[in-house]
Amino acid sequence: MVHDITGPLAVKGFYEIAGEDAHVWDPEKIVILFDHQVPADSLAAAENHIMLRSFAASQGILNYDVFEGVCHQVMPEKGHVLPGDLIVGSDSHTCAYGALGAFSTGIGSTDMASVFATGKLWFMVPETLRLRAEGTLPRLVTSKDVILRMIGDIGADGATYQACEFAGSAVSRMSVPERMTMTNMAIEMGGKAGLVDPDETTLGYIRERVPDFDGERVLHGDEDASFTERGWEVSDLPPQVAVPHNVDHVVPAGDLAGTKIDQVFLGSCTNGRFEDLALAAEVMRGEPVARGVRMVVIPASRTEYMKALRAGLVEKFMEAGAIVESPCCGPCMGGSFGLLGDGEASLSTSNRNFQGRQGSPKARVYLCSPATAAAGAITGEINDPREI
Fold it and tell me: Under CATH, what is the fold of the domain 2-118?
């Protein structure tokens, strides 16, 4: 998988490796998506889109160039991810697909050029770090809070090049969208991949999208597998927030109560699904967005957008004063719109809060769950959503 930011470099590298008249190794195993700068927000972006459309057409590659949504949402929901698959994407959050029992990982555009040409790549088999979440999540505490807490405890490099396998009673009760939030952020602790052992929840999700799925390649961990294990009891876990400018600087949301914000971003490949939007709307309960606060809502895909539209969520957000945009990455990487200015603070459901990530290097980004984002939207400050 490549998208509109990383794809052009991969295409250029492919032709340098294989020659101007070459064909990719297998067009049926390559997917292109436009999601980072859509619609094109600059001449350079428009030229990249033109080049990728031409490449896809000449090579017979499936190209989602009509704004289907964020790559990491569209790939699973369109049936391109199955248990047992080995998937590479030229985007670091490709590890999200491990929620369906695939080994998926991000690679660079140069490596992707080699994949386009040969269908092969070298990997060192990673060691496994099993992360167990036991217990029942409290009200308004989500899988985003769990993964933030794990990253805060393990550190940004504590799982470098390891396969982060999420397990435990709390994970087994999570939906596939909730699991995708966790596997998506495995990279934020250095992980090579994020994984959840496929179960009936996994298979149910896949059969809705791939009716002829036979389940032959479903792989499970060996009973005698060797791994390192860490555990968390989440029954008393409070909502968590990652403080600027590091994803592993994580504190309970209540510790930041009263921190003023200028923008709320509800969306991204981490938390832009229907369940996330519905939870945010539940917390807001028709209350307006606080004066002086901008709320940007972006469903992760066209499919998720239509779910929200039919459920009346888009109307609710608009009536509250939020801006609801078409499916794309939006302000997540500061690539198109919703950028922050000097001194501004954002409460965001995305996956990274690096300095300058969403605009000015003098801005601050706090990472949180959809519930915490919604509480911030109606109060104008960070709060524990359970206290609203």
Answer: Aconitase; domain 3 (3.30.499)
Q: Are 9 and 27 in contact (CB under 8 A)?
A: no
Q: What pLDDT digit, counting tens, does each position of 364-388 carry?
A: 999 999 999 999 999 999 999 999 8
Long-range contacts of 219-227 (CB under 8 A, 24+ apart): 219/83, 219/84, 219/101, 221/128, 221/165, 221/197, 225/128, 226/128, 227/127, 227/128, 227/129, 227/130, 227/165
Question: Judging by DSSP bridges, how do beta strands 240-242 and 250-252 pair with one another?
Answer: antiparallel
What is this structure's pTM?
A: 0.93
3-state secondary structure of 348: strand
Q: Which two tokens stand for residue 185?
A: 């952020």
269 marked ligand binding residue = yes
Residues in the chain, total: 388
Per-residue DSSP letter, 137: P
**Alpha-carbon dihedral of residues 201, 170, 238, 231, nearest 10 degrees?**
-130
Residue 329 marked ligand-binding = yes
Both tokens assigned to 332: 């997540």
Q: Which fold has domain 128-233?
A: Aconitase; domain 3 (3.30.499)
Query: What percent of the chain has a predicted confidence (pLDDT) above 90?
Result: 83
